[in-house]
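Subject: Sanity check before I submit

Could someone independently write out the structure tokens for this chain? I want to compare against mine line by line before I put it in a report. The sequence has 225 residues.
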Amino acid sequence: MTFTTPAPAATTTPTHAVIDPAILYFGTPVVLLSTLDAGGHANLAPMSSVFWLGKTAVLGLGARSQTALNLEATGECVLNLPSSAQVDAVDRIALTTGRDPVSARKSAAGYRHEPDKFGRAGLTPVPSDTVAPPRVAQCPVNLEARLVHTHPLERDDPEEAGSVVAFEVRVTRVHVHEDVRMAGTAHRVDPDRWRPLLMSFQRFYGLGGEVHPSRLASIDEEWYR
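---
Independent answer below. Compare away.
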């Protein structure tokens, strides 16, 4: 009897469709950004338009938000990174704002003024080392930072010019919980133990396990210092 090896199943490449989404949140870490207003009152704002290059972070914020006003006025903030286990605390302040009165646009979307974001979230403010805004004790990662540059976006659009700002901040100190530090190291975070909270198209997600070894990981992390 002769056996033949079956031919591999034919595979097809999916086709693309042209769409025009209102937002492009394909998945970024959630940050609780703490700032102080001119009177020294703390504000805590969830946001996810953020990325890092070296010790620089770029934060995308609405120019009229209380957080943006605070950051422009004081030049200081703390990027508090919650884990996926802290999603309830983040969600409790998701439709709140430090602005009073609340803008008509935000009010129509369900936002309301909340003067005590830390209290509403059930989170604890603790002093920072290099900046005035407080850190969030429960967040596994706190990044103290100072404003370096402000970059207004969409300047070529008369209707949107000045409505969104990218804030370039320099990280001045990093605090981490011991349970996310890599064992046997002084300055490394263990990616198998750090489980960030992610936002993708307005929904919360967490990380699964590592999906594939990375060739990039063969480079010692200290090479980037």
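---
OP: Matches mine. For the report I'm noting this point. The chain has four helices and 14 strands.
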